Amino acid sequence: MTGSRVQVNKSHKSRFSTKSSRNLHKTAAKDKSRIGKSDCNVAKGAKAARVQRNKMLRDQKRLALLKEKRASSGIASPPRVIVLFGLSASVNLNSVREDLLRQLSSEGTGALSSTVSSSKYRLRTSVLQAPHGDLVGCMEMAKVADLVAFVASASSFSEESMSYYIDSFGNQCLSVFRSLGLPSTAVLIRDLPTDLKKRKDLKKMCISSLTSEFPEDCKFYAADTKDELHKFLWLFKEQRLTVPHWRNQRPFLMAQKVDVVADDCNSGKCTLLLHGYLRAHCLSVNQLVHISGAGDFQLGKIEILKDPFPLNARKESDAMESDEIHDLEVIRTLSPDPLKLEPLLVENVPDPLAGEQTWPTEAEMAEADQNQKHRKQKKRALPRGTSEYQAAWIVDDSDEADSDSDNDADDGMVLDQEDRGFPGYEGTNNSDIDDDQASLNFRYADDGTENDSVMMEGEILTREQIEDEIKKIKEAHAEDEEFPDEVDTPLDVPARKRFAKYRGLKSFRTSSWDPKESLPPEYARIFAFDKFTRTQKHVFANALKMEQENMDDSVPASLYVRLHIKEVPAGIAHRLCEMAERSPLIASGLLQHESKMSVLHFSVKKHDTYDAPIKAKEELIFHVGFRQFVARPIFSSDNMNSDKHKMERFLHAGCFSVASIYAPICFPPLPLIVLKSADGGVAPAVAAVGSLRSIDPDRIILKKIVLTGYPQRVSKLKAIVRYMFHNPEDVRWFKVKRALFVFVP
């Protein structure tokens, strides 16, 4: 055989060709030179770009983790806060705190201060002891804790209780901590026996009993000996701490020292001095601050002080210096700029001429005429003076069959907040119109939700009166839970007067209702956002920009500062000094607009341990993040497919409701803890938990009622119902209104 033995592939084989080369014959001749080029280099470039981008993301995450580690455990980082919480009253927290401070201090003796700088562990730590039985104090400590160390006593295993190691107060605090957002956690087990086998078995039994109550990453440590505490502290130093997301959005300071300076110009005011480490973010001297339990205030100035607990080793002469000398040594002072100072604006000042109508232009009049011509509207018999908006509530005769097919839950009488009278109706006599106008006198004679919510304030009630009032509230709560929205027509008041401020809706879901209709003049004093989500993004972007640019009027985080909070009432300042001795006093920086009043909506759920009924418009204590205030919420359902929401008279257990209050603006996400104070000086109890949902003054909340009676005869299209009305005038009045499906007088 002769010839070449080199393999020659057929030209039509396209196994290794590209898609563009295979489709080259479909391309026009003028585009062959442009499309026929190989895309190998392009593909390689895209792959290289992806590889480079992934490498850049990894480097950014690595740098972010390194920065976070340096900020939390570096030399310049503020002291880590350890909160010791006893799971039962039998736990001796004093001994645990003394052992930890003695282990951290270099001299080997217990330190007088709760903050220790340990050169042995290269760590600065503040050890706080949560007071058992003081719910508010435990909550305030949990808000600033970097690590919550739950202390369990192994000797409590023999005690008779529902849980061997956790009492009722411990269970309540655990649920509250979960609602607030748990930081890093650890469990210290004390009072283990000295025998090695018994010690190991009892520790294993304790861990198995407590594992379900804590997060998966929670570690358990024996904490009886110095070696065990040394192991815990060494692992705590290397641990990457996690804190709730809401806490990292605002700068805050846990006051280690509180002073009061009298104001010479104003006798009723004073200046509050707070010493402590600034945490989370930088704080501007032009920013507003919130003092927990006091309110919002402006800053007079910020002084950066020398760190009283430096981590570097000091000379013997420096070690002999007192803390007072360090406190007096000011490194830098920041004063506010009057042009940039955030105003302490709480309420809006409405313009009385803002609602005046101007004369329309010719273009607007021509456009209105054109729209009127193109509008095809069905002719209906309407009452005199009825507007197009009111006509949307009226049911035509042809729609009666359709209304019967609607869901029964959508029909009902809904509370109307209008102050105007109903226009005259053709076919009704003058006596009915007079009765309708006279019914406005009964406008505030609604059911007991408004009047009974404030239970005889300012009067001294006897024990029998208090018991009767509680019994009535419990009976009303049970009746509302079993028969919601059902109302009996009173015998002594005509129904047309009793229910004068209600109107009928064809459908609760689809009927129109103007949120701006008949608002009181006081409603203009609150603030509303055009687009709340966009405003929130803008505010957080400005806060991040201030953090990155490191402006001259701001103090970086981790520094020891002294805040001069001006114009604080003297009584509140002295009360804060007393509170600081029991629980930490927290000052948090406010973002833009967060001092202004608006309507806040919370998603709340009744706490499992609270059995008493919670009535609408009842005075409750709201803890929203670092802020706390007293409010009277209105509860409503959450209708996802409707812009109208039904008011609820009580907060029922086992389901979420929306609580609406007037309060300062807060940007979500923020947790909510609702406390209810009891009579007789008893500590407040946890009534509900939840979170901030939205800020919307235009949310429509309607009160719905259903008139009840006793059916006597029922046919396919009609029914005879007795005892729904008690006089013929009410029957005729509601017959006309039912035909119109409008119950507005």
Give an overview of the whole structure.
The structure is a single chain. With about 750 residues, the protein is α+β, with helices and mostly antiparallel strands. Among the domains are: about 70-245, Rossmann fold, CATH 3.40.50; about 250-310 and about 330-345 and about 540-590, Elongation Factor Tu (Ef-tu), domain 3, CATH 2.40.30. The chain is about 30% helix and about 25% strand. The strands form 6 sheets. The protein has a 9-stranded mixed beta sheet with strand order 22-21-26-27-20-25-23-24-28, covered by helices on one side. Strands 2-3-1-4-5-6 form a 6-stranded mixed beta sheet, sandwiched between helices. Strand 23 and strand 24 (about 645-650) form a beta hairpin. It is globular, with a radius of gyration of 35 Å. It starts with 18 loop residues before the first helix and ends in a 5-residue tail after the last helix. About 30% of the residues are buried. The model is unreliable at about 160, about 315-325, about 395-415, about 415-460 and about 740-745 (pLDDT under 50). It is found in: Nucleus, Nucleolus. Keywords: Nucleus, Ribosome biogenesis. This is Bms1-type G domain-containing protein. It comes from Citrus sinensis (Sweet orange). Belongs to the TRAFAC class translation factor GTPase superfamily. Bms1-like GTPase family. TSR1 subfamily.
